[in-house]
């Protein structure tokens, strides 16, 4: 199982960067989790657009879905060039039906997930937890049967994240603010909350992502490290978990 950072900025991408997007690969199957601004360009450093098997979305904020239109055009153009191009499934929740319906385009098919049910996509089994965010948003616990990663998506801290993240091999935690700040209004976490979550859940390693555009982001790692004794990485393009 391989997990690679495609985009890691919160809100908007800095120069040559991308917002939230992560590529999961297992046995030749490629699943993209979120598709933020700049993701499509960066994804193609790793795989062809036509080699993407599925996309799943945590929520419909722009920094997680901005490149879906481009992905739909890419799928369409490639279908003209290669007859065997499959229709790309895009999994999303149905709490915002207007947006959900836009996931279906000529060569993409919007497919609903029920956050109360277990979802199987290719080799991956996914369970969901609704987060605390201004719009419906779902954290994901994703396993291949041997290894488990947890992606918090966008959320402020709440205790149920601990059980949901329990003993994960990798916790990908959104870290939009520094220690001492309050992210609960816009629905985001601080570095110390990420560290405390990782420690309480007993995860094997922690990635801090959905990074802020102010301050020194290396400071986030120092702050989270006061509360978590395991390995911490600040997300950057191509950061990879390999198990
Ligand atoms: Zn959001
Ligand atoms: Zn976001």
Describe this structure in words.
With 243 residues, the protein is an alpha/beta fold. The chain has one domain: Ribonuclease Z/Hydroxyacylglutathione hydrolase-like (Metallo-beta-lactamase, Chain A, 4-Layer Sandwich). Helix content is 22%, strand content 28%. The protein has 7 helices and 14 strands. A 7-stranded mixed β-sheet has the order 6-5-4-3-2-1-14. β10, α5 and β11 form a beta-alpha-beta unit. α6 packs across α7. The longest helix is centred in the N-terminal third of the chain and has 14 residues. It is globular. The N and C termini lie close together (5 Å). The model has no long low-confidence stretch (mean pLDDT 98). The structure holds zinc ion (2 copies). One zinc ion binds next to α2. It holds the Pfam family Lactamase_B_2. Keywords: Zinc. GO terms for molecular function: 3'-tRNA processing endoribonuclease activity.
């Amino acid at each position: 199982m391989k997990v690679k950072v495609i985009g890691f900025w919160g809100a908007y991408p800095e120069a040559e960067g991308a917002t939230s997007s992560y590529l999961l690969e297992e046995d030749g199957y490629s699943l993209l989790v979120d598709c933020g601004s700049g993701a499509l360009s960066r994804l193609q450093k790793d795989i062809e657009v036509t080699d993407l098997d599925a996309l799943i979305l945590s929520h419909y904020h722009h920094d997680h879905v901005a490149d879906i239109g481009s992905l739909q055009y890419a799928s369409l153009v490639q279908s003209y060039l290669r007859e065997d191009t499959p229709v790309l499934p895009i999994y999303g929740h149905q709490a915002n039906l207007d947006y959900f319906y836009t996931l279906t385009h000529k060569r993409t098919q919007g497919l609903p997930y029920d956050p109360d049910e277990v979802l199987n996509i290719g080799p991956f089994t996914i369970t969901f937890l609704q987060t605390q965010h201004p719009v419906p948003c779902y954290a994901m616990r994703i396993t291949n049967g041997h290894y488990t990663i947890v992606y918090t998506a966008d959320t402020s801290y709440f205790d149920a994240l601990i059980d949901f993240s329990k003993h994960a091999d990798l916790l990908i935690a959104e870290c939009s603010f520094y220690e001492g700040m309050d992210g609960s209004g816009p629905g985001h976490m601080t570095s110390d909350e990420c560290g405390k979550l990782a420690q309480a859940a007993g995860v094997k390693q922690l990635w801090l992502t959905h990074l802020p555009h102010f301050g020194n982001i290396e400071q986030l790692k120092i702050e989270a490290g006061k509360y978590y004794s395991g390995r911490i990485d600040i997300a950057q393009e191509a950061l990879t978990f390999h198990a």
